[in-house]
Every structure is written in C-alpha cells, then in structure tokens.
C-alpha cells in the first residue's frame, strides 16, 4: 500500500493505506457550520440543536426551527450532516423543557427522555429538520441523545421515519448503551459515541467538575474498552459508528478510535486538519496497534 504525504492532508479522511474514516465537524450554529466547511470537514457529525435555544423562553415554532437549521445545512449540500434532536437538561437546560426540580439532573429527565413525556415537541422538531433537509440538499440524518436501551433507539427511529427522515441513529453516551451496542445497531441506522457523557457516566465523575477531571480523561482504558465494544458491534453489523465527543479531537486518540473500527470522527473546526493529517500518516495496522497499546494503558505515542 502507498503511504500518503505526511505534511498535507488532502481533505479525504483515510489512513495512509486508504482505510476510510470520515473527518466531520461538530457545530451549534450557522457560523460554526461555515467554519467547519472552511476547515475542510467532510460533513457534520454532530449539530447540537439545543445550542440554538439556550436563551429561548418558549418552544420555537416549526418555521423558526426551519430558519435556524437551513443555514447550518446549506454549506454541506450533497454531504452528510447529522442533526441531533434537542439534548435538553443537566449541563444544557432549556427553559421551555424544564423537568422541574430533580436531585440529580445529570441522571434525570434529559436528552431523549424529555421526548417520552413530550413526543409532540420531538415531532415538531423532526418536521422542521425534514423540511430544511429537503431544501438544503444535504444528506441529513437525525440522531437522538442520551439513549439507554435498544427499545428507546427503536422508538426514536420509528418516529424519525414517520417524519420522512430515512436515516435515524443514536448516541452512545450511557454505559448501558455501549454494552447493548449490538442490539442498538439492529434497530438504528448508525451510532455515534459521545465520549464526554460516556466518561462522566462510566467514572461517576461530573464532566463540569475540575476536581474529578482526571477521571474524565478519554485515554482511560476502561472507557476505551467500551469504545472497543461499540466498534466491534458496528463492524459485525456493517453499520457506521462514529465518535463525536472531545476524544475525537485528539489526533493521537483519533488513531486509536480508527483502530477500534470507528467509521467517522467528528470534532470542532480547529481540530479537523490535525486529525485528518494524523490519520493520513498512519496505516490501519498502526491504528490497531495504537488501540491495543491504549487499552493496555501504555504510553500514548
Ligand atoms: C458527548 O456527550 O460526548 C457529546 C458529544 O454530547 P454533548 O457534549 O453535547 O453532551
Ligand atoms: Mg452528551
């Protein structure tokens, strides 16, 4: 196999020997989407739609949502864009979906759990996404946050398809979901691992608390074992699996994630080139070796 040039990244996410791993952008606004496009992202792996409404007091209408989503999709016409449905609660509270007092908001009604009580809110969002998708020409998928079981994933996928959205995936960010990855892959079209929350819930360490930050280090072998499980489940199913947490923005860890069989990595715009270049200068066998070492807790690089 031919080695690809070291210094430059040609904009197609792949290892030196041509094993494809898409390099995608994380965005929360139209400005972020433009920055991701300029940085060379091949698509969007995570559009955090709740970022559009952190200051909203009332639920945005379908028309307002359409207006917010369309300019995020437009720079990526013809390219893949994953739109995450509202991840309200815990560190991202939305006034119009407040669950009431909870002793442990991170363990409470957040993410997709909100939609079980308010499926009408989810359906209106799916309607707006479907409209924006068809006008933009982007290859839009939808993705649910904070999914714990395959039954929840199936419930979401059914609602997405009913709204005319043909590709429905879920985030793996609860340890139970990583352990059930095979069952989830059977009902969802793809998965994407949110390592920020997956680390928080695996180590019982608040992601916002500096005092426990060392536990939220994504190089922790116990977290990597869950990522390995997800990669293997994806490989067995033949369906895509990505990583869209902060872990994907670390160029060295990106190789480890590729070695687990992840088919895409999604990150903030400033990290896109470095991750693309890191993948391009390692063979897939190098990535698998890096994965083995990281699982064993050996020095990083
Ligand atoms: C994550 O949890 O890793 C993730 C990508 O989602 P968020 O950071 O928005 O919770
Ligand atoms: Mg999350």
TrEMBL record:
Q: Look up the EC number in the record and give it.
A: 2.7.3.9
* Cofactor requirement: Mg(2+)
Its keywords, alphabetically, are:
Cytoplasm, Kinase, Magnesium, Metal-binding, Phosphotransferase system, Sugar transport, Transferase, Transport
Q: GO terms for molecular function, please?
A: phosphoenolpyruvate-protein phosphotransferase activity
**What is the similarity comment for this entry?**
Belongs to the PEP-utilizing enzyme family.
List each copy of the PEP-utilising enzyme C-terminal domain by range: 14-281
Q: Which residues of the full protein are shown?
A: 235 to 535 of 535
Q: Which domain of life is it from?
A: Bacteria
Q: What does this protein do?
A: General (non sugar-specific) component of the phosphoenolpyruvate-dependent sugar phosphotransferase system (sugar PTS). This major carbohydrate active-transport system catalyzes the phosphorylation of incoming sugar substrates concomitantly with their translocation across the cell membrane. Enzyme I transfers the phosphoryl group from phosphoenolpyruvate (PEP) to the phosphoryl carrier protein (HPr).
What is its subcellular localisation? Answer: Cytoplasm
Name under which the protein is recorded: Phosphoenolpyruvate-protein phosphotransferase
- Top enzyme class of this protein? transferase
**Main location class:** cytoplasm
Instruction: Tell me what reaction this enzyme catalyses.
Output: L-histidyl-[protein] + phosphoenolpyruvate = N(pros)-phospho-L-histidyl-[protein] + pyruvate
